[in-house]
Amino acid sequence: MIVILTGAGISAESGLGTFRDRDGLWTRYDLNEVATPEGFARNPGVVHAFYNARRANCREAQPNAAHVALARLEAEHAEKVLIVTQNVDDLHERAGSRNVLHMHGSLGGALCAHCAHRWPAPRVMTADDPCPACGKRRTRPDIVWFGEYPYYMEQIWEALRSARLFVSIGTSGTVYPAAAFVQDAARAGAETLELNLEGSEGASDFDACRRGPASRIVPEWVSEVLDARR
Ligand code: APR
């Protein structure tokens, strides 16, 4: 199996900002206010405004050549290809990828903080939106915030244990548990490759690294892998 971890950098050229680069989201917003359960409890309106704006940006965005190349790899490679994304946008799916796990949730989902019911997110979400299941007005974006446990971790660890190849694309390697996946995969015997604009925090943990914008280096790498099979 080929396991691919993606981060905000793969969607940067689609116009969706990263978090920690110059002018990144966390240089313009206080993550404690907009991406923690405590911030949501203090002021849900501020949190909903932040995610409503991100949801609108995502609707305007289009998958780029990197997303498209990964969908091609999944469709044409004999091995199973699994994308584990930290991203909450749906650009992988819109590019045609099917095996995608959103470990940090999705902009397209709403979650009831009272009964944990999930439903498709409305374009504009407010704290007054009633839960379709319990009727309570405790609606939040279905996003994993700092201090919360990521989704699909059992599936992800199982995939890392059986990975032949682990590839990390467009992530700074600063947020755990994703930042440790390269070590988990290497420990299980996988070959590891980083594709990133610049070296991530964990760059030295990879067998090989390539630098450049995802829209160029990901399609190049995918073509090499598929050509090598012919
Ligand atoms: N092509 C390839 N890599 C890029 C590009 C690009 N065009 N633009 C930026 N990058 C790289 C940067 O060099 C950086 O290493 O993408 C990375 C983006 O890092 P972050 O902004 O830290 O985003 P990410 O690693 O996805 O953040 C992890 O942190 O804020 C939380 O939950 C949020 O999922 C997010 C997590």
TrEMBL record:
Keyword Signal included in the entry's annotation: no
Which sites bind NAD(+)?
7-26, 86-89, 170-172, 196-198, 214
Q: Where does substrate bind?
A: Y51, R54
What keywords are assigned to this protein? Acyltransferase, Cytoplasm, Metal-binding, NAD, Transferase, Zinc
Q: Where is the Deacetylase sirtuin-type domain?
A: 1-230
User: Which catalytic reaction applies to this protein?
Assistant: N(6)-acetyl-L-lysyl-[protein] + NAD(+) + H2O = 2''-O-acetyl-ADP-D-ribose + nicotinamide + L-lysyl-[protein]; N(6)-succinyl-L-lysyl-[protein] + NAD(+) + H2O = 2''-O-succinyl-ADP-D-ribose + nicotinamide + L-lysyl-[protein]
The UniProt entry annotates the active site at H104
Q: What is its EC number?
A: 2.3.1.286
Its localization reads:
Cytoplasm
Q: State how the cofactor is bound.
A: Binds 1 zinc ion per subunit.
Top-rank taxon:
Bacteria
- Could you say which cofactors this protein requires? Zn(2+)
Give the Gene Ontology MF terms in alphabetical order.
Answer: NAD-dependent protein lysine deacetylase activity
UniProt xrefs under Pfam families: SIR2 (PF02146)
Q: Where does Zn(2+) bind?
A: C112, C115, C131, C134
InterPro entries under this entry? DHS-like_NAD/FAD-binding_dom, NAD-dep_sirtuin_deacylases, Sirtuin, Sirtuin_cat_small_dom_sf, Sirtuin_class_III, Ssirtuin_cat_dom
Query: Which SUPFAM superfamilies did the record assign?
Result: DHS-like NAD/FAD-binding domain
Q: Domain text from the record?
A: 2 residues (Tyr-51 and Arg-54) present in a large hydrophobic pocket are probably involved in substrate specificity. They are important for desuccinylation activity, but dispensable for deacetylation activity.
Known role: NAD-dependent lysine deacetylase and desuccinylase that specifically removes acetyl and succinyl groups on target proteins. Modulates the activities of several proteins which are inactive in their acylated form.
Query: Which family is it part of?
Result: Belongs to the sirtuin family. Class III subfamily.
Provide the protein name: NAD-dependent protein deacylase
What organism does the record attribute this protein to? Plastorhodobacter daqingensis
User: Gene behind this chain?
Assistant: cobB
